[in-house]
Amino acid sequence: AQSVTQLDSQVPVFEEAPVELRCNYSSSVSVYLFWYVQYPNQGLQLLLKYLSGSTLVKGINGFEAEFNKSQTSFHLRKPSVHISDTAEYFCAVTAGGTSYGKLTFGQGTILTVHP
Amino acid sequence: GAVVSQHPSRVICKSGTSVKIECRSLDFQATTMFWYRQFPKQSLMLMATSNEGSKATYEQGVEKDKFLINHASLTLSTLTVTSAHPEDSSFYICSARDVFGTTNTEAFFGQGTRLTVV
């Protein structure tokens, strides 16, 4: 079984400032990692994913994340945020094989960008 | 990219009635779809895995007789909330994976359905 912990429930930040949203996971097997964004009353949009290879993953909208196996972390970063980045962000993991696609989500982090 | 359409986006029903939610993969075949539930200010919790042509697999604590899942074709899965009660009010989201496509490492999500039981 897997579990995901997002360390911050809310992150306020000013526009054009950098931001980091933290995610730690626990699993007894190898996992694949994802970050999703959710706008109010909408579904989820994939920002980026880590499957294998380079531990620094670049996604859409200027976001990137770094997989750290020793620290079991997958923190999301953006060097300069915009008002439009205000949303809720979810870190998620899935195992491989027949379980692939069955996601375990973190609790979510609400990012609020202030002008 | 692969598109998943979920319908309806919002539904209000009376306590004791049943509600059907549809999840369609528009441009790919989905042998497996997943149904999640999200209570206000909480994360998404997997309810069940829907398999085309076979019975759904439910997560622990999810009543299979209350949440009926049918996956009769490769592009459609339905979730029926039977005898709905106010505590079933939630945001239900489906996802599907294009197993045979070039984006087979990604699960695509529908827009979600906001169910309110009064």
Explained architecture:
The complex is a heterodimer of chains A (115) and B (118). Chain A has 115 residues and is mainly β. Chain A has a single domain (3-114), classed as Immunoglobulin-like (Sandwich). Chain A has no helices and twelve strands. In chain A, strands 2, 5, 6, 10, 11 and 12 form a six-stranded mixed sheet that branches. The radius of gyration of chain A is 14 Å and the shape is globular. The termini of chain A are far apart. The model of chain A has no long low-confidence stretch (mean pLDDT 93). Chain B is mainly beta and 118 residues long. In chain B, strands 2, 4, 5, 6, 9, 10 and 11 form a seven-stranded mixed sheet that branches. Chain B has a four-stranded antiparallel sheet with strand order 1-3-8-7, with no helix packed on it. In chain B, a hairpin with a 5-residue loop joins strand 4 and strand 5. Chain B is globular, with a radius of gyration of 14 Å. The mean pLDDT of chain B is 91. The chains are: A mainly beta (115), B mainly beta (118). At the A-B interface, strand 6 and strand 11 of A face strand 4, strand 5, strand 9 and strand 10 of B.
Q: Residue ranges of chain A: pLDDT <50 for 5 or more in a row?
A: none
Q: CATH homologous superfamily of chain A?
A: Immunoglobulins
Outline of chain A, from the CA principal axes? globular
Q: Provide the helix percentage of chain A.
A: under 10%
DSSP summary: helix tally of chain B: 0
Question: Main β-sheet of chain A: number of strands, strand sense, barrel status?
Answer: 6 strands, mixed
List the domain count of chain A as a whole number.
Answer: 1
Can you identify the CATH class of chain A?
A: Mainly Beta
Oligomer: heterodimer
Number of strands of chain B: 11
Mean pLDDT of chain A: 93
General form of chain B: globular
Tell me the fraction of residues in β-strands of chain A, as a range. Answer: over 45%
Report the mean per-residue pLDDT of chain B as an integer: 91
